[in-house]
Amino acid sequence: MLTQVSSALRGKSGQVLVSRGSGSWRRASRSPNWLAGSHGFEQERTRVGAVLFDYVLGGHFDRWWVGSGFEYWHSSIGYRSVAGARASSKTPVRTLGGGYIAPLAGTFYVEPWLAGHLALTQASPSIGGQLYRPQRLNGEVSLKLGFLFDL
Q: b/e for 13-34, b at 16 or more Cβ within 10 A?
């Protein structure tokens, strides 16, 4: 199964997915840019490397699935009153998610899914004398559209 993912927040995302039987290994190469939007912090950018294992309950990579794994987030953020400066942090993250793969027509499918991400360390970068404390627990909801290719 080959999946292309795009973000409504103008970020970029890509995945390489290798599947055999009901399991799959996936490595996400980039994640979307997120907006910090509070207390003068802005333009948060996050790059993610991930190793995740997904288990699909359907017999042909369809129906319900659950997945888990580890991610490594490298984030940077700006502060409104400090032009051009950025602070960065690196955080290991544990992820748990699931969704439903619904074939629509031929090999075309739609897949609503959700995930939770728990930062295993507390990153608190400082910029312009201000300390940024991101949430340790983050949720994600997405809708994938794709094609299933039997190799």
A: bebebebeeeebebebebbbeb
